């Protein structure tokens, strides 16, 4: 099982994400943003949290145009798996791989705290380790996590069971309390909360561990 | 040649920064400010011969996120 974690100038959760993959048995390659191809045999790409390119222009906008992101887009078009956490979610929406956009938090404040998430679907490689309706505690740390999409997009996400997680107490103004969504083929997930920051007893919570364990279970069979 | 690109959040997209500015203006005693929308202006210095179509492509691909933003181009 191989995972690749993309590293942009300004990424700061890249090693956390790599450690979370490694503890479930993935071999992890760190891939610099100037690379034009992913390593051979990568099962899943992780796009980490942070402030890629200083959040200039819009969060994730410049990262989405980087050489490695063209390779990530090609990987997902081939049906490859990818997960974007926090800034990684912003990057995935900016590439168009996932619909919608992340706006400034409604309260205009950067929020860093552990919040409650409701698991909305267990039908994905990412969420298969949870029960639908299960509430989990996962940290958030963002200034621009206010998910926005037009009504037709939200209706499609609902109809296709592509809302992965919602906030139990919406911290940032996201439409429909959305914290994380899936792509049409359910193989790409973007979420603002950080499961990799709740994957070890030393983190103060382990509700994120099942996320990576479920992925490892699916990848081991592949 | 120069181009100026105005980028604004689309109508219907919440602008929390504009709302905060509106509240501040009200608190300062400026009555009657019914709405504030905040955008950005991007000035481009371009080689002669750059076409408007190329600037449109720049806007669509990078300068604006057309999911949430609209833009206007002024060529000067």
TrEMBL record, chain A:
Active site, UniProt feature: 86 (nucleophile), 194, 196
Gene3D superfamilies linked to this entry: 3.40.50.880
Pfam family, one: GATase_5
This protein's GO CC annotations: cytoplasm
Pathway(s) annotated for this protein in UniProt: Purine metabolism; IMP biosynthesis via de novo pathway; 5-amino-1-(5-phospho-D-ribosyl)imidazole from N(2)-formyl-N(1)-(5-phospho-D-ribosyl)glycinamide: step 1/2
Alphabetized SUPFAM superfamilies for the sequence: Class I glutamine amidotransferase-like
Subcellular location(s) per record: Cytoplasm
EC number: 6.3.5.3, 3.5.1.2
Biological processes annotated in GO: 'de novo' IMP biosynthetic process
PROSITE patterns: GATASE_TYPE_1
Keywords: ATP-binding, Cytoplasm, Glutamine amidotransferase, Hydrolase, Ligase, Nucleotide-binding, Purine biosynthesis
PANTHER family reported for this sequence: PHOSPHORIBOSYLFORMYLGLYCINAMIDINE SYNTHASE SUBUNIT PURQ
NCBIfam families, alphabetized: FGAM_synth_I, PRK03619.1
Subunit structure: Part of the FGAM synthase complex composed of 1 PurL, 1 PurQ and 2 PurS subunits.
Protein name: Phosphoribosylformylglycinamidine synthase subunit PurQ
Taxonomic source organism: Antarcticimicrobium sediminis
TrEMBL record, chain B:
Enzyme type, top EC level: ligase
Catalyses which reaction(s): N(2)-formyl-N(1)-(5-phospho-beta-D-ribosyl)glycinamide + L-glutamine + ATP + H2O = 2-formamido-N(1)-(5-O-phospho-beta-D-ribosyl)acetamidine + L-glutamate + ADP + phosphate + H(+)
UniProt pathway: Purine metabolism; IMP biosynthesis via de novo pathway; 5-amino-1-(5-phospho-D-ribosyl)imidazole from N(2)-formyl-N(1)-(5-phospho-D-ribosyl)glycinamide: step 1/2
Major localisation: cytoplasm
Source organism, top-level taxon: Bacteria
Keyword Transferase: no
GO molecular-function term, one example from the UniProt record: phosphoribosylformylglycinamidine synthase activity
Record-linked Gene3D superfamilies: Phosphoribosylformylglycinamidine synthase subunit PurS
EC number: 6.3.5.3
Entry's localization field: Cytoplasm
CC per GO annotation: cytoplasm
Single biological process term from Gene Ontology: 'de novo' IMP biosynthetic process
HAMAP family, per the entry: PurS
Family, per entry: Belongs to the PurS family.
Name of the protein described by the UniProt record: Phosphoribosylformylglycinamidine synthase subunit PurS
Organism: Antarcticimicrobium sediminis
Protein's gene: purS
């Amino acid at each position: 099982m191989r995972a690749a974690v993309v590293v942009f100038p300004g990424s700061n959760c890249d090693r956390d994400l790599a450690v979370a993959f490694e503890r479930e048995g993935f071999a992890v390659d760190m891939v610099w943003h100037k690379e034009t191809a992913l390593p051979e045999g990568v099962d899943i790409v992780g796009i980490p949290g942070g402030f890629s390119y200083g959040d200039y222009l819009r969060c994730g906008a410049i990262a989405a145009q980087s050489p490695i992101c063209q390779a990530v887009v090609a990987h997902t078009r081939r049906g490859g798996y990818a997960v974007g956490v926090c800034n990684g979610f912003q990057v995935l929406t900016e590439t168009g791989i996932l619909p919608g956009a992340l706006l400034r938090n409604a309260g205009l404040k950067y929020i860093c705290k552990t919040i409650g998430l409701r698991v909305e679907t267990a039908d994905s490689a990412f969420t298969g380790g949870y029960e639908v309706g299960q509430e989990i505690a996962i940290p958030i740390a963002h200034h621009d996590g206010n998910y926005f999409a037009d009504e037709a997009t939200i209706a499609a996400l609902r109809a296709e069971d592509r809302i992965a997680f919602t906030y139990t107490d919406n911290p940032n103004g996201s439409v429909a309390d959305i914290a994380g969504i899936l792509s049409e083929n359910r193989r790409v997930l973007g979420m603002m909360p950080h499961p990799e920051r709740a994957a070890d007893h030393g983190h103060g919570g382990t509700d994120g561990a099942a996320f990576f364990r479920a992925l490892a279970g699916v990848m081991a069979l592949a | 040649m120069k181009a100026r690109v105005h980028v604004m959040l689309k109508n219907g997209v919440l602008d929390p920064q504009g709302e905060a500015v509106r509240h501040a203006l009200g608190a300062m005693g400026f009555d009657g400010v019914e709405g504030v929308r905040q955008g950005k202006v991007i000035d481009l210095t371009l080689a002669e011969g750059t076409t408007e179509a190329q600037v449109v492509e720049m806007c669509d691909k990078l300068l604006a996120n057309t999911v949430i933003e609209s833009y206007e181009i002024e060529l000067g």
